[in-house]
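Suppose you are handed only these lines of text.
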Amino acid sequence: MDPVDPAALAAARAVLDGARRVAVLTGAGISTDSGIPDFRGPNGIWTRDPAAEKRSTIDHYLSDTTVREAAWRIRLESEMWAAEPNAGHHAVADLARQGRLHTLVTQNIDGLHSAAGLSADHVVEVHGTVHAVECLGCGDRGPMGPVLERVRQGEPDPPCAACGGILKSATIMFGQALVPADLARAERAAIEADVLVAVGTSLNVYPVAGMVPLALELGRPVVIVNAEPTPFDDAVTVVVRGSASDVLPLLFAPRSDGGSEMSTN
Ligand code: APR
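From them, the structure of the protein bound to adenosine-5-diphosphoribose can be written out as follows.
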């Protein structure tokens, strides 16, 4: 990826200058440097297999055993289990330690923001988590580990032990509703924060992408940090083109002397 443009970084730092309540929205792009592919980037999961996105709906999952068996195989082989938080995740956790993070809203299911040290009251996983399993029949919920072990031992589509219903990772698929309380927290973050920073997301998927126009309508500065263009690049205050793991440590670093601009030369 190209080196970060110092002028864009300085402009973004100026926007964050003095911001006491920063809302951060992340997408799959913040985890690619941890070895987890994104969806719509050049090597994204949907980019490589467009049909997979069409199959990734709750209706297909409920009605088609082969879709469920493929989903469990993908879960079993997922890069997420070996992934570690990268410098981008740690930079957001550092912002929280500085007392400047209002809320971290993530579309990611990998749990890496929590693994980087963010507490639950700072994190909203609006598309759920791969670290838990829920039964679509009785609603029973538990850790992913034991169910993955059943798949590893040869059950291709393990049913709920309590009611025999269909089990699924506690992620939100296309066609499923987001958790109203999570969505309310995300909206409140866009409304209450001084600045919104959108990182590693193509801003294609609603309702969460709606945080950006909501912040803009309220006159809040918005910074985008992304490897590729997004539909909102022309509307926001600053766009920093680059890798989240390179940019965020520079963007969220505390000011050395409490106010002067970081020197980039
Ligand atoms: N640094 C910054 N940006 C990056 C990096 C990186 N290291 N790696 C990839 N990107 C960018 C890509 O260029 C892309 O624009 O991150 C963006 C990721 O976009 P998507 O792959 O569309 O992922 P996301 O926006 O999180 O998707 C939203 O779609 O399929 C659903 O539920 C899924 O939560 C997901 C939702």
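What can we learn from it? The pocket of adenosine-5-diphosphoribose is lined by residues 27-29, 32-33, 38-41, 44, 107, 127, 200-202, 204-205, 226-228, 243-245 (CB under 6 Å). The radius of gyration is 19 Å.
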